[in-house]
Design goal:
375 residues, alpha/beta, six-stranded parallel sheet, 14% strand, binds uridine-diphosphate-N-acetylglucosamine, binds uridine-5'-diphosphate
């Protein structure tokens, strides 16, 4: 069976490694995977580094769309994906998450009557101001197989009218939904022990540090929110070292939103170490060695949980409700007082119990098996 996998943004490249590994280890005689990179992310440390480090097969196509406004970027992808699908005639298209690359793949494939397989289906923030919420809802509703990493995601799909009854031969009109665990949990388990091999790349403080990532457009493109988040980081840095691998979007927006002078004081703060985006092993290493994670990333808040670290979520809501419900992550939005007080609380009294709620580390294998059985 020929599958076309579409990736474009950093987290999708990382996720794809779990799926490609499951094919290689268990289904190499049954599944041929053709990888298409839309080119949404293109910096070496946002794309290429993951292929080398995580052993991901090279993309057969790079559509090189680059950055742009939503419509412009998505339209270019749709146009170029149509050509790829015409040439490759895949049995199904594999899509991850909720980026513009996901949406483009969903539109192009579904209109060509190619079954869409959505990995990370059902997640909702219930906030349509997020471009990701629009992308994921639209993708779910043209999919034939929907794999949800969490029980909450599965229930969201049921609430939107998806049937829980499994079809022997599902279609876009009668799709199948599954709760099967998180493909990123597969990856964290697989790569966690290998992450120590990158230790020498980092000059880390001995007594632990706070790891921080920021890239959500609602934070980077809003002056007040970005200022409040950086004020919080500066306040926390007075009692704990901060390491901040900086997303290119945030790097571009910091001087524009915070002003050159303020951005410079942050950059020159000796207790805030701003670094380039790191590789996935680098990130796992930093996460493992941190005492607390401050983030607006979807993936990083979950990895914090997988590696038994508390997380302060720099957003007004999360799709990963479970980690907040059990008290190991806190939604602090861009609220200075909340961020700083919760950070202090977690550092003084770190949570101890991290129940297994994201599967058993074999989500990708289950997906491959189900695709072979159903399509
Ligand atoms: C995208 C996804 C987001 C995901 C994130 C992961 C959408 C709508 N958003 O957000 O859901 O969480 O990726 O990181 O798909 N840039 C570079 N080099 C690169 C890539 C981007 O400099 O390699 C800069 C460009 O200035 C670009 C900006 O970052 O305009 C934003 O990139 P884009 O891919 O549009 O969105 P992200 O914020 O990365
Ligand atoms: N990540 C990485 N290097 C970094 C920052 C993040 O490898 O410098 C990884 C992180 O470990 C996680 C994924 O990128 O697996 C999350 O991607 P991102 O935060 O860009 O997007 P989101 O998950 O919010 O869509």
């Amino acid at each position: 069976m020929k599958l076309v996998t579409i990736i474009g943004a950093r987290p999708q490249i990382i996720k794809a490694s779990a799926f490609s590994r499951a094919i290689k280890n268990h289904y190499s005689d049954k599944i041929e995977e053709v990888i298409v990179h839309t080119g949404q992310h293109y910096d070496e440390n946002m794309s290429e580094v993951f292929f080398t480090e995580l052993n991901i097969p090279a993309p057969k196509y790079n559509l090189a769309v680059g950055s742009g406004k939503h419509g412009e970027q998505t339209a270019k992808m749709i146009e170029r994906l149509e050509e790829v699908f015409e040439k490759e005639q895949p049995a199904a298209v594999i899509l991850y998450g909720d980026t513009n690359s996901t949406l483009a793949g969903a539109v192009a494939a579904s209109k060509m009557l190619i079954p869409v397989v959505h990995i990370e289906a059902g997640l909702r923030s219930f906030d349509k101001a997020m471009p990701e919420e629009i992308n994921r809802i639209l993708c779910d509703h043209v999919s034939t197989l929907l794999f949800s990493p969490t029980r909450t995601g599965y229930e969201n799909l049921v609430n939107e009218g998806f049937s829980t009854q499994l079809q022997e031969k599902p279609t876009a009109n009668k799709p199948n939904i599954y709760h099967c665990g998180d493909i990123m949990y597969d990856n964290t388990l697989f790569f966690s022990s290998k992450a120590d091999s990158v230790a020498e790349k980092f000059d880390l403080p001995k007594e632990g540090f706070v790891l921080c990532t920021i890239h959500r457009n609602s934070n980077t493109d809003d002056k007040d929110r970005l200022k409040s988040i950086f004020d919080s980081i500066v306040a926390i840095s007075s009692f704990k070292k901060i390491i901040l691998p900086l997303h290119p979007r945030t790097k571009k927006m910091m001087p524009l939103m915070l002003g050159e002078a303020y951005a410079k004081t942050v950059e020159e703060n000796p207790n805030i170490q701003i670094i380039e985006p790191v590789s996935f092993l680098g990130m796992i290493y930093l996460e493992k060695n941190s005492d607390l994670i401050l983030t607006d990333s979807g993936g990083v808040q979950k990895e914090a949980y997988y590696l038994n670290k508390p997380a302060v979520i720099l957003r007004p809501q999360t799709e990963w409700k479970e980690i907040v419900d059990c008290g190991n992550a806190a939604i602090c939005d861009a609220d200075f007082d909340l961020i700083v007080s919760k950070a202090k609380q977690y550092l003084d009294c770190p949570p101890k119990e991290f129940p297994e709620i994201f599967g058993d580390g074999n989500a990708a294998k289950f997906m491959c098996k189900t695709i072979l059985e159903c399509l």
